[in-house]
Amino acid sequence: MKRIKNLLSVVLMALFALSANAQKEVKVTSDVPYCTDSPSQVLDIAEPVNFGSEGLRPAIVIIHGGGWSAGSKSDPVYRNLLMDYALQGYVTVSVEYRFTQEAPFPACIQDVKCAVRWLKAHAKELRVDTERIGVTGHSAGAHLSLMVGVSSDSKEFEVGPWSEYSSSVACVVAGAPPTEIRGMKDTEFWPIGYVGGNKPPMLLLQGSEDPIVRPELTDDFVNKMRKAGSNVDYIRIPGNHGVAFDAGLEITKPAADAFFARHLKNEFANQKILKMKAPEGGGRGRFQAVAVTEKSLPDFVVYRPANMEAATRRGAKLPVMVYANGGCMNTSIHQEKMLIEIASHGYVIIAIGEMQNYPHDRREASTPASMLTDAINWMEAQSKDEASLYYNRVDMDKVAAAGHSCGGAQVLAVADDPRLKSYLLLNSGMGKMEMAGASAKSLKKLHAPIIYMIGGPSDVAHGNALIDYKSIKKVPVVFADMTEAGHGATFAQPYGGAFAQMVIRWLDWQLKGRAENAPIFLQADLKDFPGWTMEAKNFK
After folding, report:
1. CB 42 within 8 A of CB 31
2. Local confidence band at 22 (pLDDT 50, 70, 90 cut-offs)
3. What is the model's pLDDT at position 288?
4. Does residue 113 carry a pLDDT above 80?
5. Residue 504 Cα distances to 35, 305, 346, 347, 498, angstroms
6. Which residues neighbour 506 within 8 Å (Cβ) at sequence distance 6 or greater?
7. CB atoms within 10 A of CB 214
8. How wide is the angle at C-alpha 107 spanned by C-alphas 106 and 112, nearest 5°?
9. Could you give the domains of the chain?
10. Exposed, middle or buried by CB within 10 Å (0-12, 13-18, 19+), for 267?
11. Which of 276, 316, 365, 524 is most buried when burial is the number of CB atoms within 10 A of its CB?
12. What pLDDT is stored for residue 182 in this prediction?
């Protein structure tokens, strides 16, 4: 450690205060050798100072990209990352390694694993908890990060000093990760050759239009790792190779921060999130949205603005919608394009069912209507919990229930819940049926405005929905019919298509009080909705 002390160190003052009397500081030590084979084998260290804790600290190792033949830890994106994580309380290490023109594979893998061992060897001086070390990188750096994570048992990569220490890490975050290169026989150099269970938790970030790292290869790796029993989070959003650092940063950076906080320390609010993804790039509304599974609500998916603080700035509170799926199934993936789009317009949606990455990636099962009530109860508790992300940010006086097909019957089964201020039945209706605990008698439970959105005569729910519409005598009711949509509506279209936009207009009117939307439903002003017809009654 003597050579570290002899190197130039700088102390950078953060621009924000830890408290009224203290400021966060970061001590940066540059170009520390971790091996002596090459001048390339150096690293930078950023240590948090004045953070109010004298105990051992978590650490993050950053590995730069550049196709294994270029790039630098000094690039602004990695320098900023070094500082940012140090300001979050991590001892942060950014690593240089030998490029392939200097030393062929697997030298770069050996180097970054040596850097991890170096960190463990100097953990006492740096006050690092060796059981709480994470690693992250982008592109080639993501490949090297994954190799650190998956190949801890491979002795051929454990080359160089500090051999008494393991290169194993607690977790990995990899952006645009090359998991394999088709046609190459040396799978021992690629993460795909190490598929198995008992690997450290991983978060993979992938752009769906990445021209360099083929998204389908990342998909394949994730699926194989999950089937083998490993804990892998995966966020695939529209974007190119740099999605983790540019266009998708609003989603990927908070996700990475939450992931590290969950696995490396126990003081970050987002540690309550089990899974996160951003279908459709987070929607097209004012607020980029995400889908999350909360630790305290594992059998549901919450669709919400990614930045709840920004979405509720100036005292605004977001309306809530609970959602039941077609077939009464335990997955909302078939309607997630619509749900993420609605959330991006300033709503929090709690949908029944576990998070899925693609249809039918697990066994689907039916659910009870009571789960809608469970969702409302959970959010009501969250809204009152000062430790919750949702505290004072959701409006429990503005709650709607929606459901598709059988899910619409589930909505009617709980229609007497006094907290509900609106109902939305999508491609659904009871008629003379009994389903999911609901029947024609359930219509008498209605106490708030309801809309039926139907897909025309070819929609199997059309006849029953029309019977319901005619039977409802007291509460305001709308019959909105997209005549060519069918029972599947427009859910498979980008951003949920016209059905999503109609739902947003209805919710904006009913829950946000935007009276300018009323003519759509009351006067059939459908210039923005070609192919629709509209009927309404019982409105004053």
Report:
1. yes
2. very low
3. 82
4. yes
5. 58, 15, 10, 9, 10
6. 422, 424, 451, 478, 517, 521
7. 16
8. 105
9. 24-265 (3.40.50.1820), 298-537 (3.40.50.1820)
10. exposed
11. 276
12. 63
- H helices of 197-295, in order, are 215-227, 249-264
Q: Give me the numbers of helices (H) and strands (E) for the chain, helices first please.
A: 14, 19
Work out whether the CA dihedral 87, 88, 93, 97 comes out positive or negative: negative
Q: Which amino acid is at 328?
A: C
Q: Please tell me which residue, 243 or 69, carries the higher pLDDT value.
A: 69
- State the amino acid at position 103 in one-letter form: A
* Rounded-to-integer distance, Cα 539 and Cα 522, Å: 8
- Share of residues in the chain with pLDDT > 70 (%): 91
User: Tokens 């050579």 correspond to what residue?
Assistant: 3
- One-letter amino acid at 487 equals H
pLDDT of residue 246: 65
Three-state secondary structure call for residue 329: strand
- Helix 336-343 and helix 497-510, axial crossing angle in degrees, nearest 10: 40
Residues 434-459 pLDDT 10s: 999 999 999 999 999 999 999 999 99
Rounded CA separation 290/277 (Å)? 6
**Listed residue (189, 377, 413) closest to 300, CA to CA:** 377
Taking each helix axis as running N to C, give the angle between helix 107-121 and helix 140-150, from 0 to 180 degrees, rounded to the nearest 10: 60
Q: Which residues contact 166 (CB under 8 A, 6 or more apart)?
A: 117, 120, 152
What does the pLDDT look like over 285-335, one tens digit per residue?
988 888 999 889 999 999 999 888 888 877 789 999 999 999 999 999 999
Q: How many residues does the chain have?
A: 540
pLDDT digits (tens, 9 = 90+) for 239-271: 888 877 665 677 788 888 878 887 887 543 444
Taking each helix axis as running N to C, give the angle between helix 370-384 and helix 406-413, from 0 to 180 degrees, rounded to the nearest 10.
Answer: 60
Instruction: Supply the pLDDT for residue 266.
Output: 54
Give the sign of the dihedral formed by CA 247, CA 294, CA 318, CA 476: positive
